[in-house]
Design goal:
With 508 residues, the chain is of the alpha+beta class. It folds into three domains: 127 residues, Immunoglobulins (Immunoglobulin-like), CATH 2.60.40.10; 245 residues, Metallo-dependent phosphatases (Purple Acid Phosphatase, chain A, domain 2, 4-Layer Sandwich); 81 residues, Type 1 dockerin domain (Orthogonal Bundle). Helices cover 20% and strands 28% of the residues. α3 links the parallel β11 and β12. The protein is elongated and about 95 Å long.
């Protein structure tokens, strides 16, 4: 890492200096971080904090704390205190670039910390706090997520402020952290407070590959578990309480993609065999989208859904399209259990989300996109996501720049999947098969009217694609003594594959 990469914040230095001098003049006698006291330290000297502190590699028993300061002859130092009140110090190295590893921490525990250059306090406050991960498969977590953010725009700062207020354990990013050749304007200034308390686990997007032209190595800035420096791509995985996360890279070459997908298959197989409650993947390129990249061909869009089907992945999040989208559950490229929306009880598919509205200019919807049947909602708006995850429920929300809710869904594993109930041929779901159902089906076919349940309108039971033969079949039964519709008819009942025929709500 060159100094030019680290000191690209020179134009912001005077503002940061004023911030820290103000903090020193108001210096605390006691630091309270979530009720965790740290002893006061007298401040003197000239060292200045230029970047961070920020968290990396936060797990059950360890975390890395990184920061950049003006060069000095003193060693970096972290003082931290846990819920038991015991104060511990860990010493780093001499120099500008600091990485201090804290080990031997307790799982699912809250810690407060402060950072020093020698004896000089560089940063302290209620924002310097973290919570270690619960044991794998246990406990709860809150994660915030954003993508395509690194522009330094007002929208990015606004979304960052929303995420700061959510008290998240993890900060997940779907890629494109950097657009303008500055780590600090794209990442470390807009998210300064968030990064000090919510550990960043990022995926690389196509714009992040520009770091190489900045003479900056991705792995010098971000350190993640289960990664290997010999890999051409940066892909990795980690457990955090009830969820297992697989993070994939934006890769172009076929050989590198094959290596990454082989890693993904091994990882998902192992995680599923361990019985981790939730499998979550995030990466940059969207799998299902109706945005401007809807018809963009890439191997990962073909092969990743097959892995998700095989290992019953619960959630896939991506960026690249600058908007917000959420799919219905999809498996085998068929919509599953869509009628349950927005609370899905043991759904038979993977929910795919596009979150690319973190700060860049927004993209609209592409008319005629081939993935349109899968997408529940599309919104071209700046936003972030927040996930609250326990062993039995994954609760997701999309929030706009004011913190207002744009979308909400829940995936629940506490009970078996319910069956959809309806009467075959009852297109308007009024419980009776009559001429009104014929008119409802014709209105859908020729006038663009909405149809609440195509499975119910499918009077022949032949499949999801409604054609003119369906209302003709109903007319023949009603008025010409034709054959009756197959079950469920004449009574309202359930059908195993009804929701695979794009039925969005129960009929009985």
């Amino acid at each position: 890492m060159t100094q030019s990469g680290y000191f690209s914040v020179s134009r912001h230095t005077s503002r940061l200096r004023g911030e820290f001098l103000s903090r020193r003049s108001l210096f605390f006698a006691l630091l309270l971080v979530g009720g965790l006291p740290l002893p006061a330290v007298e401040v003197a000297g000239a060292a200045e904090l230029l970047r961070g502190p920020y968290l990396q590699g936060l797990g059950e028993t360890s975390v890395e704390i990184l920061w950049v300061m003006t060069p000095s002859g003193d060693r970096g130092r972290v003082r931290y205190v846990g819920e038991d009140g015991r104060v511990v110090e860990q010493v780093g190295v001499r120099g500008a670039n600091q990485r201090v590893v804290l080990e031997g921490l307790r799982p699912a525990s809250r810690y407060g910390y402060s950072v020093f250059s020698g004896e000089e306090l560089l940063d302290a406050g209620e924002h310097l706090v973290f919570r270690t991960a619960p044991r794998a498969g246990e406990g709860r977590l809150r994660a915030v997520m954003v993508g395509d953010s690194g522009t330094g725009s007002e929208a990015q700062v606004g979304i960052g402020s929303v995420m700061e207020g959510l008290d998240a354990d993890l900060f997940l990013h779907t890629g494109d952290l950097i657009y303008h050749r500055s780590l600090d304007s794209g990442i470390f200034l807009p998210y300064r407070t968030l990064l000090s308390k919510s550990c960043l686990y990022p995926a690389r997007g196509n714009h992040d590959l520009d770091m190489e032209r900045m003479d900056v190595e991705w792995r010098d800035i971000f350190t993640v578990p289960n990664d290997e420096s010999e890999r051409a791509g940066v892909y990795y995985s980690y457990d955090w309480g009830p969820a297992h996360f697989l993070v994939l890279d934006y890769i172009f070459t076929e050989a590198q993609m094959e290596e990454q997908l082989a890693f993904a298959e091994r990882d998902l197989s192992t995680a599923r065999s361990r019985g981790v409650p939730w499998l979550i993947i995030y990466q940059h390129l969207p799998i299902y989208t109706v945005g401007v990249y809807a018809n963009f061909d890439h191997p990962i869009r073909e092969e990743l859904p097959e892995l998700c089907d095989r290992y019953e992945v619960d959630l896939v999040c991506s960026g690249h399209d600058h908007n917000y989208q959420r799919s219905y559950p999809v498996r085998g490229r068929v919509l599953r259990d869509g009628w349950q929306d927005p609370v899905f009880q043991s759904p038979r598919g993977t929910v795919y989300i596009v979150t690319g509205g973190g700060g860049g200019h927004l993209y609209g919807e592409l008319q005629g996109a081939r993935d349109r049947p899968y997408i529940r909602t599309f919104q071209s708006v700046n936003h972030c996501l927040v996930f609250d995850i326990s062993a039995t429920e994954l609760h997701g929300r999309a929030l706009d720049i004011e913190g207002r809710q744009l979308d909400e869904f829940r995936l629940n594993k506490s009970d078996p999947r319910p069956l959809l109930s309806f009467m075959r041929g009852d297109a308007n779901l009024d419980g009776v098969l009559d001429l009104a159902d014929v008119l409802t089906t014709l209105g859908f076919l020729f006038l663009g009217d909405e149809l609440p349940c195509p499975a119910a309108a499918d009077s022949t039971g032949e499949g999801a694609h409604l054609v003119i033969t369906r209302p003709i079949y109903t007319l023949r039964f009603l008025f010409m003594g034709g054959a009756p519709p197959p079950a469920p008819f004449p009574l309202c009942g359930s059908h195993e594959d009804a929701d695979d025929a794009f039925c969005y709500e129960p009929g009985c």
